């Protein structure tokens, strides 16, 4: 029995080290992203929905592309579907437990509908044939591009731009350095995380999908959690909800879009189609009524409790 124990310890160490690198890398990427947007003079909500979302989705992107290329498609799919569930159930849940979020009107006119459309587009592409192929990936990335163009054109007036004290414009060399270090840390972290996750799945005979939907997805959602909690503490609520909704849109359209353009992604474990994808659609839909009930346009601790409870239930059913 010694062998599995040694291997599981080693795999756990890989997972922890990988996560540490992913979080650090995401943080450096975030710093450089905010510095760049200040240099280019882009409004806050747009930064939250685009730059911050893309930076916090970078771990998912790297992990999913690498999993797909290494022949672990379920890890790539499970990671994105699980991350989207974790972003709304766990991350948004914890964030609203810490403090209520006033929701902007753009939430129900743009952000939420686009997230639902992205979720349904992904569902339509993968549910019936169990595969994401190149042309579907191209459509997804194209849809993301149109959304970004729309955001940059029309979202400017949606939120009053607060200039927080800590947004120091960095010198260009520092911005580039953070960008480079962040990228390398993300790459190294993803290598370790995938090796550890696949190793752990093998040792315990658990499917890659279950590891992807639970361990890997929570790991790659940690940057979103960090970014959202920090945004909340600094009273940057425009960034915190925008970042989560934006991340979910990026995860589906950019991460799976780009990964499936590089190599087709096929579902191996049917649990992804019979269970996980419906949890993702359900929790994404749930956010809309929560925002309006009981008081309009806000999320408070009760909503947070409900979201975390839904997430715990999902993990329980996935593992058992």
From TrEMBL:
Its transmembrane ranges are 12-30, 75-98, 110-128, 134-152, 210-233, 245-265, 277-294, 301-319
Q: Where is the Sodium/calcium exchanger membrane region domain?
A: 12-152, 176-319
One Pfam family from the UniProt entry? Na_Ca_ex
Q: Which InterPro entries match?
A: K/Na/Ca-exchanger, NaCa_Exmemb, NCX_ion-bd_dom_sf
Keyword check for Transmembrane: yes
What's an example Gene Ontology biological process for this entry? Answer: intracellular calcium ion homeostasis
Which Gene Ontology cellular component terms are annotated? plasma membrane
Sorted UniProt keywords: Membrane, Transmembrane, Transmembrane helix
Membrane topology term: Multi-pass membrane protein
Any one GO MF annotation of this record:
calcium channel activity
NCBIfam families per record: calcium/sodium antiporter (TIGR00367)
Q: Return the protein name.
A: Cation:H+ antiporter
């Amino acid at each position: 029995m010694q062998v599995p124990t040694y291997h599981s310890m080693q795999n756990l160490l890989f997972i922890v080290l990988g996560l540490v690198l992913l979080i650090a890398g995401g943080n450096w990427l975030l710093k450089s992203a905010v510095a760049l947007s200040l240099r280019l003079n882009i409004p806050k909500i747009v930064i939250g929905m685009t730059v911050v979302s893309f930076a916090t989705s970078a771990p998912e992107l790297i992990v999913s592309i690498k999993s797909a290329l290494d022949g672990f498609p379920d890890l790539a799919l499970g990671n994105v579907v699980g991350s989207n569930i974790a972003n709304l159930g766990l991350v948004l849940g914890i964030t609203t437990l810490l403090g209520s979020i006033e929701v902007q009107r753009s939430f129900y006119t743009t952000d939420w509908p686009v997230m639902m459309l992205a979720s349904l587009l992904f569902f339509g592409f993968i549910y019936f044939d169990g595969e994401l192929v190149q042309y579907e990936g191209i459509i997804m990335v194209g849809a993301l591009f149109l959304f970004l163009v729309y955001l940059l054109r029309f979202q400017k007036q949606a939120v009053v731009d607060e200039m927080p004290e800590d947004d120091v414009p960095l010198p260009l060399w520092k911005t580039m350095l953070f960008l480079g270090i962040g990228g390398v840390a993300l790459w190294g972290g993803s290598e370790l995380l995938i090796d550890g996750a696949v190793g752990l799945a093998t040792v315990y005979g658990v499917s890659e999908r279950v590891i992807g939907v639970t361990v890997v997805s929570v790991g790659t959602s940690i940057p979103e959690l960090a970014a959202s909690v920090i945004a909340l503490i600094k009273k940057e609520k425009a960034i915190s909800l925008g970042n989560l909704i934006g991340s979910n849109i990026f995860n589906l359209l950019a991460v799976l879009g780009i990964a499936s353009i590089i190599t087709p992604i096929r579902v191996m474990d049917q649990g992804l189609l019979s269970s996980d994808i419906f949890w993702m659609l359900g929790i994404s839909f749930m956010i809309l009524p929560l925002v309006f009930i009981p008081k309009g346009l806000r999320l408070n601790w009760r909503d947070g409790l409900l979201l975390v409870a839904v997430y715990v239930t999902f993990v329980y059913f996935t593992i058992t």
